[in-house]
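Second attempt. The first submission of Arylsulfatase had a stray character pasted in from the spreadsheet, which I only caught after the job came back as garbage. Lesson logged: always re-copy from the clean sequence file. Corrected sequence (864 aa) follows.
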Amino acid sequence: MIRQKWRRSGTGLSLALAALLAHLSPMASADQIEGTLGATDAKRVLSGKQLPPPAIPFGGVIKDDALNSTPWWPPTVVPPKGAPNVLLIMTDDAGFAVPSTFGGVIPTPTMDRIAANGLRYNRMFSTSLCSPTRAAMITGRNHHSVGFGVIAEQATGYPGYDSVIGTDNATIGRILRDNGYATSWFGKDHNTPTYQASQAGPFTQWPTGMGFDYFYGFVGGDANQWGPNLFRNTTQIYPWIGHEGTLKMDRSDPKAKVWPVTGKEPSWNLITAMADDALDWMYRIHQSDPDQPIFINYVPGSSHAPHHPTKEWVDKIHAMHLFDDGYQKLRERIFANQKKLGVIPQDEELTPWPDDVLTPWDKLSPEAQKLFIRQVEVFAAYVAYNDHEIGRVIQGFEDLGKLDNTLIIYQNGDNGTSAEGGPDGTFSEVAFFNGVQVPIDVQMKYYDAWGTEFTYNHMSAGWSWAFDTPFDWFKQNASRLGGINQNMVIQWPARIKDKGALREQFMHVIDVVPTILEATGIKAPEVVDGIKQKPIEGTSFLYTFDAKNAKEPSRHKTQYFEMMGQWALYHEGWLLSTKVDRAPWDAFGAANTDPLNNQVFQLYDLSKNFNQSEDIAAQHPDKVKQMRAMFLEEAKKYQVLPLDASVGARVASPRPSLTAGHSELTYTRPMTGLPQGDAPYLLNTSYTVTADITVPEEGNAEGMIVTSGGRFAGWGFYLLKGKPVFTWNLLNLEWVKWQGQEALAPGRHVLEFDFKYDGLGVGTMAYNNFSGIGRSGTGTLKVDGKVVETRKMEKTLPIILQWDESFDIGQDTITGINDADYLPPFPLTAKFNKLTIKIDRPQLSKADIEKMEKALKAVEAGRE
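This time the job returned cleanly.
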């Protein structure tokens, strides 16, 4: 029924309205109209079945001339009256014990304030990994249901793993936008397929293509916070230019224990910049239309590696001496804090320290202890800095007078704390993703630089174990609560009156969308863009906002978990888990080929054992059998099959790309910003890079011809003081360089770098065999057909370049390949004529395949 406030304006309008009502579709006729239909200020509240809503037929009168006609305007779509603003916040790679709100030692006063004025939740669950949790949170559907069984960089050609959120899974951004909200996304977008992240598009899987009016952030898993691959909507921007500091790292003495850093840090950092931009957007919307509610998806890079806080925050944390007694004492202190705050049961017991996995603190060398304290202080500074900037955004709502009717959901972490730095941590996470553990003495050289633009740093996994207290294990471990049990706080002053209370119902990130929809009074659409939608799979937890429901049993009864072959099933308080068989830093070993069955099964009663410490599988074999069968049914229902326990192999496995299927690529104009997912992939292969350039008459040309990657891994072909140079940066640990001895004379030249690879390539990884990757090869540099240098590389990068850097022609964006040679943008002063890249990938012979199949069978026989 249409609600109509009539103005008496003549028979013509009445007849037009009568005709209009007769022709309205059932969906449109269920909408509510506020004001006078056809007037410029009329509003339309949708029934919610179809998006975009069907058009209301023109209700005015059209004659031959305007004087005798009656104008009519379609009503503006608005949300239901009283619908709140929504601020959805989720931090990155942060376990249960990170924030002070839940017993941690890192100060998070913003989260503390939200908790004091709202509610605390200690049983919010994630998927154990970045992209999957984020896809589930914005769609209200399980991560496999929307193509994100793993991160986008590991996508494979199965529906549950292809990294594509289907058109039948409209996001919360799309639903709210089409119902009259202004929608935005700030920070991390890890839900765009790697092969659709370039300026060639399509942009349907970018935030702006998924219902968010405005996007300011980076595309990918993580980013250098001092100089990220940053976008405004779909345009790459470089706002830090002009804010660069004068930091310098002195590597002149290779034997120095620490390479000193001098100078002033940059005045720009993304953590502050995105808060600034969010505030600008909020104020712009408010000043343009004060009545329009807003939805912000605020997902900063903190505290994912690289940990890049400002020196101010590092100094604040260092002065607090929070970590001087080591990670085991920290864990005990946090556990006591948690009991004191009442966020865990008083009778819970702390699980033993895993001596077989992580070295006890008192067994570390003094040098390792010093390094590890530096690592964790920078991490803690990053967390505290981020929480402070989140507080500025929340203050913006208060300054605008909107805080009372703003629903704030602040979730700590999209998964447990990351251990991807390994037991010793690392000065560069890019090294981890190439299977390289960096020794303590090498990391110590970066001690002064930790957290600056010269590191892509991560901390020791010992700290990560402590930051997941009272649970164990880490991010990636979907079968352990340390990987999946997050916490969150919620504030909505107009609705939540039970301030500071704790809620303990089981919840999952797929429950966020239905909760927001219920809070706003907006229904999940049945059809979007003519496409029937999959049902929302989450369960609203709005009922927990009321004190009378504080102890009501969870309405979310059953939930599966699966990540890279490790899995679990929750059902009405019971949790069936597979025993951890792989540490997160062990990404390159042979994978379990039967992860559904080849497992050690554990069983827990979470209603009696909060932190998953008492395995009762032996006492309940029938329950184990029942829940194994239930998991298989859930797996079939939500596109979890086929199970795949591989990790590193999936990063380098073939997937769509703009360069896929091309063995020869030609470029005739300079260009920058092509992301790694669509750039020529020159790892584990033979290739030739040929550049046709013209040196100007004045000579001494220099600059970047072509580059891919950056300071922490990549390659570049450039002119240095007129001499051609080809450099491979091997994880910022070694630089292999080919260089001509003479500067190029004025005129046209053809420069060629030819590389012959010695290994069998990525095809070997299908057989859990990494011996064919990262092998040696011989490079030859030629000028005008003449060989100027030949050199053998004893090893090459096996898996990935620096992912937040791009493929650039004619200059170098963000960071350079070799700081000793040049600093970006290093524009090419010679004329660029043409660039050709030829790729000759190794082909496996029948004998190669038979040999690897035999080796795989031997591995499986050993497992049995």
